[in-house]
Amino acid sequence: MKKRVISFLAIATMTASMFAACGGADTATETTGTASDAAEGGSSEVATPAEDTGTVLNIQCWNEEFKSRVTDHYPGYEEVDATHGKIGDVDVVWNITPSDDNAYQNHLDEALLNQENASADDKVDIFLVEADYALKYVDQPYTMTMADLGISDSDLSDQYKYTQDIVTDSNGNLKGSSWQACSAGLIYNREAAKEVLGTDDPTEVQAAVADWDKYNETAAKVADAGYTMCSVNDTYRVYSNNVSGKWVQDGKVVVDKNIDKWVDDSMALVESKAEDTDDLWGDDWGKGKLPEGKVFCYFGPAWFFNFSLDADKEGTIANKGGWGFCEGPQSYYWGGTWICAATGTDNPNLVKDIILTMTTDKTVLKDIAQKDSDCVNSKSVLAELAADDSGNLDILGGQNPYEQLAAGAEGIDLSNLSAYDQGCNEEFQNAMKNYFEGNATKDEALDMFKKAIVEKYPDVTAE
Amino acid sequence: MNKKSKVVRYNKWGYIFLIPFIVTYVVFQLVPLVSTVYNSFFENYRSGLTQIGPNFVGLQNYVTIIQNGDLPTYFANTMIMWVMCFVPQIIISLLLGAWFTDPSLRLKCQQFFKTVIYLPNLIMASAFAMLFFTLFADSGPINSMLMQIGVLDEAYKFMSNVWSVRTLIATMNCLMWFGNTTILLMAGMMGIDTSLFEAAQVDGATATQIFYRITLPLLKPILVYVMITSLIGGLQLFDVPQILTNGTGDPMRSSMTLIMYLNKHLYSKNFGLGGALSVILFIVTGILSLIVYKITVKEED
Q1: Which of chain A's residues have a Cβ under 8 Å away from the Cβ of B137?
Q2: A364-377 burial, b for 16+ CB within 10 Å, e for fewer?
Q3: B7: pLDDT strictly greater than 70
């Protein structure tokens, strides 16, 4: 996790510095236009939010990503300094707490629990969440529903359903919105694919990894050719996104059969040396970015191949455009940032406008996709990108991945999320590493997992 | 009369000068200590954003901790790693201390070496652990060096073996603390009356005899102090294994220390169980320190 956070920070700094130059000139033009657009949104079923009384808009987040998106794409946003900005007369305050060691969530917990007593200028207006722990906040009265903000379902109809599932509470209320649809797939080394499969065509490679049986067959061939398929931790998300039940059912932790399949499949592949057990983001795991690393594939979404494959470094596969992209064995997603409105905000109309502009305005979204390489949360914009050459990526040897990304996003089903996912996924991978490395039997590793879960979530039982 | 009031006034200043310490102690030590004990009798944690408790549960937290049977394992892990670190550390420190304080050796650049051996202690423990983590990674420099000179055929997974992980942790702690121990022991050795050494030399004692018969016995108070502080430090071992194993204490929690276990309960802000565990640790530390103290002082009589 820590490694992941560090690289996220690195990515954030990279993007921030990249776009620092393009920000200034065009942002200050339309200050008035958007607020009036927003007022029209209220249809019969959605409430009209109270009038804005606040002079300070507090935004809680964990890195610079959203800030740079707002700076670049939100009309009327003026940057004051690193943590302050202005929209019209409202001061925007960015409260950035890195997510290392759960620091962001701890900070946000305190801020939200204190929301009622906080003075008007200190109240949280907007906070950002990641999917892994979104339900922890969404399933609570601390988060406003989109309907209460005056945002109707029709405003969000162009979004992918899975991005809404993540921020839908247990009563079916939608409570957040994202500009990203991080559907992910299999990113393969073209050289290796030619050597092992005799082709590097995305459709034919996809056929070779279309389901887990075919994937395992291919992995065996890959291992024979002296390559490693990937790390067991790379495939984990693919399995865990396709479970048939929640991690915690009736207060008891349940290991889904697809997760169990991950354990058995992975163990077989580790034993035949087709997969390794490297932790994500570590140096050992990152060796496959170079041709000498002899890694066949990684699993990841659009931001992954744009930022995590070291395309700007001489000698990497990405630098030579040597990667290809296909959907992989099962649809899944990875990452993404959701915007939530905090209950008690004194700027509901501004919050509403920010959410609508940043997550539904097609011009803004297309701009984001092309400028920041985000895979945006809009079916029509992705279709546009897939249709012409503007979506071709050098890193993938000129392949346009948007068709696969869009297809993947349609296939994602996240009805089985629970508020315990982050802890369960993390601890399960930690515990199973012991099994894969021969330090424990499967049962011992499962016991270790259950022990860790009970420590993390005292209200959950294991037996 | 005049004289007497002066004495009283001096006393007053004594108390006034004590105030900063007493206030700091009460605010940062005594209050947390008492509230930890108090908290340990309550069920008090957070599940997501939902606060559960505090509900008074009596000794339930203590029962839970003792019944799940993990405590002895983590205690054993901690002690094993402490012994692995302390034994080499005390030997090296005694040797270095004896050399540095021996005037007949006429060591040059003493100040330089004293600084150098203390330096590792100035690095942040977590940075040190990150460094070792990188050095001993599967494709890290140590592995590639060993493979290039032909010692290994394929990378040795240092982080996946019980004893290599424990050895790494012990080595790091030893490296970090032997300088500190050396300085303490040297201070003790320099406090020994030099006439004793001279008398022994005049009587024809060898260097070994002087070390065992004069230095060691007279060093005992400092040795006891070093032992107890190191033991307490060892029981609180946390940052190095936490960073090195990414908080998991793997393989199979064989390098999980007591404080890492305590830290696991803080994820859910479980002040009840955390408090109970802290109180148990407090008692264990007290008993162990008492044992060390009793053993070493008894021999003196």
Answers
A1: 282-284
A2: bbbbbbebbbbbbb
A3: no
Q: Which of A2, A445, A458 sits opposite B246 (nearest CB)?
A: A2
pLDDT band at A27 (very low <50, low <70, confident <90, very high): very low
A457 lies within 8 A of chain B by CB? yes
Domain residues for B128? 69-267
- From the list A439, A440, A458, the residue facing B45 with the nearest CB is A458
Average pLDDT, chain A: 85
- Measured in whole angstroms, the distance separating CA B131 from the mean position of its chain's CA atoms is 20
Positive or negative, the CA dihedral A361, A362, A363, A368 is positive
Beta-carbon separation of B49 and A437 below 8 A: no
B176 lies in a domain? yes
Query: Residue A463 is encoded by which pair of tokens?
Result: 């037996």
Distance CA A234, CA A239 (A): 10
For A137, the closest of B49, B250, B251 (CB atoms) is: B49
Q: Where are the domains of chain A?
A: 2-181+335-387, 183-334+394-456
Element spanning A61, H or E: strand A56-61
Residues of B in contact with A279 (CB under 8 A): 246
Q: Give residue-wise pLDDT tens across range A364-408.
A: 998 888 887 788 899 999 888 888 887 788 888 888 888 888 888
Q: Is residue B156 part of a domain?
A: yes
Model pLDDT for residues B82-140, shown as the tens digit of each residue:
999 999 999 999 999 988 888 778 888 888 988 899 998 888 888 999 999 999 988 88
Residues of B in contact with A452 (CB under 8 A): 264
Let me know: does B279 contact B37? Beta carbons within 8 Å.
yes
Task: Tell me whether domains A2-181+335-387 and A183-334+394-456 share a fold.
Answer: yes
Phi, then psi, of A153 in degrees rounded to 5: -60, -35
Cβ within 8 Å, pair B270-A458: yes
Domain count across chain B: 1
Q: pTM for this one?
A: 0.83
The class that CATH gives domain A183-334+394-456 is: alpha beta
**CATH number of the domain to which B96 belongs:** 1.10.3720.10
Which pLDDT belongs to residue B79?
94
Q: What is the CATH number of domain A2-181+335-387?
A: 3.40.190.10
Which residues in chain A have their CB less than 8 angstroms from residue B134's CB? Answer: 283
User: What's the CA gap between A460 and A211, in Å, rounded?
Assistant: 33
Q: Which of residues 271-300 of B touch A (CB under 8 A)?
A: 273
Decide if A434 and B49 are in contact by the 8 Å CB cutoff.
Answer: no
Task: For residue B53, tell me if it sits in a domain.
Answer: no
- Is the Cβ–Cβ distance between A340 and A129 less than 8 Å? yes
Q: Which B residues, 65 through 84, put their C-beta within 8 Å of a C-beta on chain A?
A: 68, 70
Encode pLDDT of B28-81 as tens digits.
999 999 999 999 999 988 887 888 878 899 899 999 999 888 899 999 999 999
Searching chain A, which residue's CA lies closest to the CA of residue B52? A459
